[in-house]
Amino acid sequence: MTLIDTSSWIEALRQDGDPAVRGRVQSLLQTGDASWCDLVRVELWHGVRGAAERKMMEQLDADVHLLPTTDAVWATARELARRSRAKGLTVPATDLIIAACGHAHGVPIEHRDQHLTALQQLFD
After folding, report:
1. pLDDT at 61 over 90
2. Which residue segment(s) compose the domain that 83 sits in?
3. How far does Cα 42 stand from its chain's mean position?
4. What strands, in cross-sheet order, belong to the sheet with 34-36?
5. Region for residue 49 given its phi and psi (left: phi exceeds 0; alpha: psi -120 to 50; beta: otherwise)
6. What is the CATH classification number for the domain harbouring 39?
7. Confidence of residue 123 (pLDDT cuts 50, 70, 90)
8. Taking Cα atoms as reference points, which of 106, 67, 105, 99 lies closest to residue 83?
C-alpha cells in the first residue's frame, strides 16, 4: 500500500503531467496498492470541474483505499509540527497531516512535494 499525495495525483491525472509519476500512480491503481487519506480526497474534490472530472473522482472513491485519519495521525501531525518548527521549517498543515497519516499507517508516500521530503527526514 502507498499513500498517493495530491501532488502526484495532479501529475497523474493531467494530460500533460509527468509520465513517470503517471506510470507510478497507474501501477499502484492496477495492483490495488493505491491509497489516500481524507485530506487528499478533499483537495482533489476541491479542484473538480465538470461532469467528467466528477465521474473520475467517483470512480477513484470506489477504487482507492482510504487510510483513516485516526487520533494517532493527529498526534503524529502535532509532533511533526513541533519538530519542523524546531528545525526552522515552515510546512503547511495539510502536509503535516498527510505525512503523519503515511507514517501512522506504515506506508510510503508517492509525492512531488519538497515539504513531504523534509518531513520524512524528521522520522529518521
Report:
1. yes
2. 2-123
3. 11
4. 65-66, 34-36, 2-4, 109-110
5. beta
6. 3.40.50.1010
7. confident
8. 99
First to last CA, the chain: 20
Query: Mind listing the pLDDT tens digit for each residue in 73-91?
Result: 999 999 999 999 999 999 9
Cell of 8: 502526484
**Residue 35 forms beta bridges with which residues?**
3, 65
Amino acid residing at 27? S
The kind and range of the H/E element at 58 are helix 50-63
Q: Which helix (H) or strand (E) holds 115?
A: helix 114-123
SS3 48: coil
Residue with cell 499525495: 5
Residue in this structure with the C-alpha cell 510510503, named with its chain if needed = 108
- Give pTM, 2 decimals: 0.94
The SS3 call for residue 97 is: helix
Total structural domains within the chain: 1
Identify whether the C-beta of residue 43 lies closer than 8 Å to the C-beta of residue 94: yes
